[in-house]
């Protein structure tokens, strides 16, 4: 049985899916805003690596995904499918599971 | 792995989501209207910080969100995703989870 | 953290929601119609205080709410979100949870 | 707190709801058709008292309710909201819970 | 409280509902096709007595029911509402619960 | 109560339903492809006997069923309604429960 | 009862279904990207063998499937129907269960 190797740069999400690299939340000790400690246990922040071409509506037209490559995003804690590639954590999300873009 | 810091002013909710700063209910001892004590345990009142551009309907058009920045809102007790930033409590809500604008 | 005070007259329900003041059922001992005793335990009758502008349909048009301010309404026992303001009981209902207008 | 009295003649169901007076099934000992004994425990037969104006469809038009005042109807055993008024049993049903008009 | 008597010939199903007289499966000892013994315990075969005018679609038009009076039908074992009238078994089915017309 | 006999050739499925004769999986000891032993316990392969005229869409038009009489089909293990006629096993499936045609 | 033999090359998925040959994840000890060990227990990677003609929308038109024969795909761990043919593992997936095309 032939094996398939997965390369991050070649992952092309389908439909309204978004491929996101999971980020660790930065803790700032002075000033600024930070994610609380307990957010580290299951990160909810990431950076968009690739996006799908969008969902097809009833007219056969695609609705483009609202986020773009490079966007930092907040996403639902329990959403999507976790994928570990080369030691890094990724997640394949539906656009609806992305809550907000955080620049 | 690169870390992402989140700044309240840069949070841009997607779709029909609304970014809300959770308020503590004010207790007035004289006259006026107030939220009962038990409402403090899990606040249901907040102020809109930013709003998404609205949901895309079947025609590919966006329906604008009904609330605007600065609105005080009542929202469902168990709705949305809680986020703690810089010691303050925020919640990312779908517009449908907002029950009413108050004052 | 700033507090928000809620005034009944400023509550503006969103979408097809309706803000209702809960009524106690009147018991008449002679003639007339009355709600049975057990209906008192969890009132299902109220008076409309304010109404939302209606739901947006797929064409981006609002469907006006069928009830109006001042209407006495019967509503589902377990529907909506209960709110206590100034010692009185209110409920925020979706229009679909209102069963009928009474007199 | 003001009380509200409910008068059967003033109940106006919303949407596709139908206000039905619950009937007791008649038992005929000779000839004819009758409902079996066990149907008495939870009546499924009633007479339409008032009807709503019908549901609003996606085009903003109302679809009139298929039954009319005075119709005898068969309805689902566990459907609707039971209301007791003046010693009589009523039920507020969605049109979809009405199975058939009888006679 | 007035009683209502139900006559089979006057039952008029609503929407896409179909009024069906339950049949006992015939057992043939020679040749032919027959329903197995265990099918007798809960009949799945019946004859259409009356049909509704069909469901209303989003355009306000009725889609006629696919079966007609007199059709022998196979229906889902657990579908519909059983009604016993004059010693006979009837069932009120949604058209979608009718699997096939037989013979 | 009149009995109804069912003849395979007269079964006419409604809507998008498909009447399928269940097949036993063939085991080949040499070369070729075969279904594993455990597939015999609950067959998932069959031959289409008759098909419905297709589902009616919102425009009142029928969408023809994608399979045709004589097609060998793979179907979901737990889908449909099993029917035993004359010693043979049949199943009434919705088209959506048919996974693939296997020539 | 006639038996049906299944040949991989003749499997034609219906609707938006996709017939996928399950791949074993390749483990690279040096450089490159690889799937972690625990991904081997239930593979989520495969190669598209055949695709259906796409789902029919409300207008009676087919929306073509977004993947094509030969595509390497990532799919949901618990999606689809597993089929073992000739010693190899296959899976029949709905297009919506395919998360991404890889390489």
UniProtKB/TrEMBL annotation, chains A, B, C, D, E, F, G:
SMART domains recorded: Cpn10
InterPro entries for the chain: Chaperonin_GroES, Chaperonin_GroES_sf, Chaprnonin_Cpn10_CS, GroES-like_sf
Pfam families given in the database record: Cpn10 (PF00166)
PROSITE patterns listed in its UniProt record: CHAPERONINS_CPN10 (PS00681)
GO CC aspect terms: cytoplasm
Alphabetized UniProt keyword annotations: Chaperone, Cytoplasm
GO molecular function, one term: protein folding chaperone
Subcellular location per the Swiss-Prot or TrEMBL entry: Cytoplasm
Superkingdom of the organism of origin: Bacteria
Family: Belongs to the GroES chaperonin family.
Function: Together with the chaperonin GroEL, plays an essential role in assisting protein folding. The GroEL-GroES system forms a nano-cage that allows encapsulation of the non-native substrate proteins and provides a physical environment optimized to promote and accelerate protein folding. GroES binds to the apical surface of the GroEL ring, thereby capping the opening of the GroEL channel.
Assembly and oligomerization: Heptamer of 7 subunits arranged in a ring. Interacts with the chaperonin GroEL.
Protein known as: Co-chaperonin GroES
Gene name of this polypeptide: groES
